[in-house]
Amino acid sequence: MVLISSDAGTATFEGKEKDFKEGFVAAFITSEPESIVVKTGWNGDNKNFNVWAQKFIVPADEDIDEILKEMLTSYKKNQGKSIGYAILSDGSVFELK
Length: 97
Known about the structure:
alpha+beta; 3-stranded antiparallel beta sheet; 8 strands
């Protein structure tokens, strides 16, 4: 499981692309984390491209989709990001509003 926090930009994973007009937290369940591409916009306030990612290994006997949703909700709340987005283990999209 990979969690990414970024300024506005585009996230691409397994051929699916999503544009974000404002800062976002994205989450992906994958055995190939190197396949994730994030293109962020320039943050004029601090003169940086702001993006970070964390990778988590989840035991096989735990519900990875539920863990991902909980972590995404927590990161969204703690960072004040207005959009949460995830690709679940079945390939479906989960989005927090």
